[in-house]
Specification:
alpha/beta; 15 helices; 53% helix; binds guanosine-5'-diphosphate
């Protein structure tokens, strides 16, 4: 295929063959023999970016598309790929540029200072065209993250309450080892499920408790760290037994987290699960039987409700920045605030212009205009080979 109408804007040769591994290997060896070399991870997309075919945010959208775990995550990536984010950035950038032009006129004609720098007009423009859209984009990142990376859910409970069984139910397969000997889940196990379009990363932990046993101790330490990272915690209780001091001490570790009170083994329980809610008030209560597959749909619904506030949830924006872009957006926003503050403090136009330039520099980072080679390397390393 002749340049420039190719993915990288360079001449491209594609070789089509059938999928027998030895044949492909022979062809590859032959091509390498003729002087070709293997591509680095993400090299095709990197070349597409360097040759101006796509912006950096679009290149990142390609990675996100390849990694998308849910349809919503895919839609968000496609929207970035279409350049929706870039259009937003372009609007904000234009606002910075036109403010800078006004301020620079004031630098050139200091005697007309007061007239040119109409504070209220500048302030209004900065607020409407810079601060508000930036704040909206940054908020969209936190919402988009839920669909993109998923939420982190932790299943916590004393040994033998049925954590592994519940994990298996949620995964709909027998992955974790289930055993009736307390403490069989030695380490943490992580899996990802799809709950109503939302990726949920589940961690099942060794029961957090004081233990002499060293190997389990390692699992316990990890679990403590996991509590900090978790977005939602399932506090699992054994419905067939009374609450113990171990349950209470576990609860103390997690009571401040968004919590679901899940009472398991209701198939063999004689007591009313609502009795448990009285002891641990203020959290949604879901009675389940991991063994008999009772209450699992309700549990999934409650996980969703807890994360989304029960609303039919949508990130709202078409364009949702990723982590790197959000960091740059935050830098831009800080520059925007500095500019507003500078206006309020009646700083000289040359200082105001510096704030505006700082904002422009941060924005340049997002689309890749001012991005350094090392940052580019890190971004493209995230790709797999052949993309
Ligand atoms: P963990 O130590 O918390 O991971 O607990 P496991 O998932 O290994 O389960 C411990 C024991 O409880 C196993 O014998 C399970 O079969 C049993 N168990 C788990 N869930 C239920 C349930 O809903 N009902 C009944 N009757 N037994 C269950």
């Amino acid at each position: 295929m002749k340049a420039p109408k190719t993915y990288t804007r360079e001449d491209v040769v594609e070789i089509h063959c059938h999928s027998s591994f030895p044949v492909m290997e022979d062809i590859l060896a032959e091509v390498l023999n003729c002087g070709a070399r293997l591509a680095e991870p993400g090299e095709f997309t990197k070349r597409a970016f360097l040759n101006g075919r796509i912006s950096l945010s679009q290149a990142e959208a390609v990675i996100e598309l390849l990694k998308a775990r849910t349809r919503k995550g895919r839609d968000l990536a496609l929207s970035s790929l279409r350049g929706e984010l870039q259009k937003e950035i372009e609007k904000i950038r234009n606002a910075f540029l036109s403010l800078k032009a006004i301020v620079e006129v004031a630098i050139d004609f200091p005697e007309d200072d007061v007239e040119i720098l109409d504070d209220r007009a500048l302030r209004g423009k900065a607020q409407k065209e810079i601060i508000t859209p930036l704040e909206r984009l940054i908020a969209a990142f936190y919402q988009g993250k839920i669909y993109r990376e998923g939420i982190f859910l932790l299943i916590l409970g004393k040994p033998n309450v049925g954590k592994s069984s519940l994990l298996n139910r949620l995964l709909k397969e027998e992955r974790a080892i289930v055993s009736s000997v307390p403490g069989t889940t030695r380490d943490t196990i992580e899996e990802c499920i799809n709950v109503k379009g939302m990726a949920v990363n589940i961690t099942d932990t060794a029961g957090i408790r004081q233990t002499e046993e060293e190997i389990e101790g390692i699992g316990v330490e990890r679990a403590r760290t996991k509590i900090v990272d978790a977005d939602v915690v399932i506090f699992l209780l054994d419905g067939s037994q009374d609450i113990t001091s171990e349950d209470y001490s576990l609860y103390e570790l997690i009571r401040a987290k968004p919590l679901l009170l899940v009472v398991n083994k209701i198939d063999i329980s004689t007591s009313d699960p609502h009795e448990f809610a009285k002891r641990f008030p203020g959290h949604p209560l879901i009675p389940v039987s991991a063994l008999r597959n009772i209450g699992i749909n309700e549990l999934e619904q409650e996980i969703f409700n807890l994360v989304t506030g029960g609303k039919d949830w949508d990130p709202g924006a078409d364009c949702v920045p990723n982590m790197r872009q959000t960091t740059a957006l935050k830098g831009t926003l800080a520059a925007g605030y500095d500019f507003l503050e500078g206006l309020a403090d009646r700083l000289t136009p040359d200082l105001l212009a510096l704030d505006l330039q700082a904002g422009l520099d941060c924005l340049g980072d997002i689309v890749g205009e001012t991005t350094t080679e090392d940052v580019l390397d890190v971004i493209f390393q995230d790709f797999c080979l052949g993309k």
